[in-house]
Amino acid sequence: MAFFPGKDRIREGWNSIRQTFRANRSQQTQSNSEVKINGSAASRLMRKKPITLAVGAIMLLAAVGFSGTQYVKAHFDDYVEVYRNGNLVGEVDSQDQVSQLISRKQSEITTANPDVTMELETGELKFEHKSAYKAEPKTTATLQKLESMIGSHAKGVELEVNGKLIGIVKDQATADSIMKRIEGKYAPKAAVKKAANEVMALSYSKSAETSDKTNTALKSVKIVEKVTTESANVEPGDILNADQVYLMMVKGTVKPTKYTVKEGDCVGCIADRFDISKQVIYERNSWIQDDMIKVGDVLDLTVLKPQVTVETVENVTETIAIEPITVIQKNSNMRAGEQKVIRKGQSGKKQMVYKLTKQNGYLMSEELVMQQVLENSVPAIIMKGTKVILGEGTGQFSWPVSGVRITSGFGTRWGRMHKGVDLVGNHNIMAADNGVIAFAGTKNGLGNCIIINHKNGYETTYGHLSKISVKKGQTVEKGDRIGIMGNTGHSFGTHLHFEVHKNGELQNPLKYL
């Protein structure tokens, strides 16, 4: 920096005045010795000269001072000191030059990383405005030094499942869209018939004769695991695109699992033990027929384990036919065994609502939660002879379990036919109608089992009993206790497996109950 020159200028001014006074004094001495003048005139002359010299000196000093101030002002320059994190970096001509540097650096990193949000690491910058005589700030060197100190990082969002980092995406909106996409992978599209049919295919299918309409309503969808997101400063290369993270979340890992069947095992029991859907077992072991497995069989239980489990709860509503009951009118004029149709029966309709709970599309549980009669059936009237036949049914069935709850419906499930309905409730099992015990013993798959012949074309089957209370050939009436609910045969928990057959053809029991 240059220094203020005002003192030198003033010193030079005073020296000039002194020299002027000395010259005037020398001239005065010389005049007095050579010229004689009037005393009064000489006196006036001597008085005027010092005054004139003094005034001249003052004017000269004023001129010198004014000139020095203007000179200094004309050569004073403004500049800016730049500090980073409290340390002086250097001086620049103006603060705008630093702003332009930062803007350029931001543009460069944004251009180099177009798909992520980049931030500069400038540190804490402060500026002090200064002024000095003939200031010469080293702007270029300061800007170069500051540029070397500036770093950068990408802004990302870490996505974790149960505390485990799965991947990093560019922002929260991307993370949210991935989770919605995962939920949508397993959530059926409400009001879309195709999606409703797909849902039914995973659980069971109804024939055209028993079901007029099937609709699915999604009640809830949630991810079982704890999923968290958090903003983080990362390297640009650490950020993955949405498709990459989505596949990492839903693909998961596959660990081959084999299991050897032991005494007392059943498909449902094994599924519960390994916390998997029975559907997995059926898909991996297509050789299983009618739930028949035996000790020593080796089952493939391999299942995909995604990073997240999407649990959906759906209400499946179907409309099924109600088979008409048959009213028997006795006619003493007709011989025993003869009959005549007085009126044909007409089917009614009822609505059944099932709650299906699935995990990643696999059915985990199924429950009948509501049924409502939409249209009553019209009973058929048949006139028969008066001869009484012991054990003949009425054709109208009652529930074989009191306090009943349906846990599995009738129809094809996972590609296999479920021949009846599974019921839980009071453990006493009752005859659904009058009849004769046609079988009381053990059957493959059904364990302890009772079959009642109702002598009117109908037969009912009661499976998985823990105790049988009747014998073959015994006549029973509707509501008689015939056994105790159990878990024998190929069962997956205490319940009653109930079937209805008409003239040898398997029927949906819910048409008659």
TrEMBL record:
InterPro entries: Cell_wall_metabolism_enzyme (IPR050570), Dup_hybrid_motif (IPR011055), G5_dom (IPR011098), LysM (IPR018392), LysM_dom_sf (IPR036779), M23ase_b-sheet_dom (IPR016047)
Ranges in coiled-coil conformation: none
Top-rank taxon: Bacteria
Pfam assignment, any one: G5
Gene3D superfamilies per record: Glucose Permease (Domain IIA), LysM domain, Resuscitation-promoting factor rpfb
TM spans (from-to): 51-72
Keywords annotated in UniProt: Membrane, Signal, Transmembrane, Transmembrane helix
Keyword Ubl conjugation: no
Chain ranges of the LysM domain: 257-301
Domain G5: 308-388
Protein name in the entry: Peptidoglycan DD-metalloendopeptidase family protein
Organism: Paenibacillus solisilvae
Species lineage: Bacteria, Bacillati, Bacillota, Bacilli, Bacillales
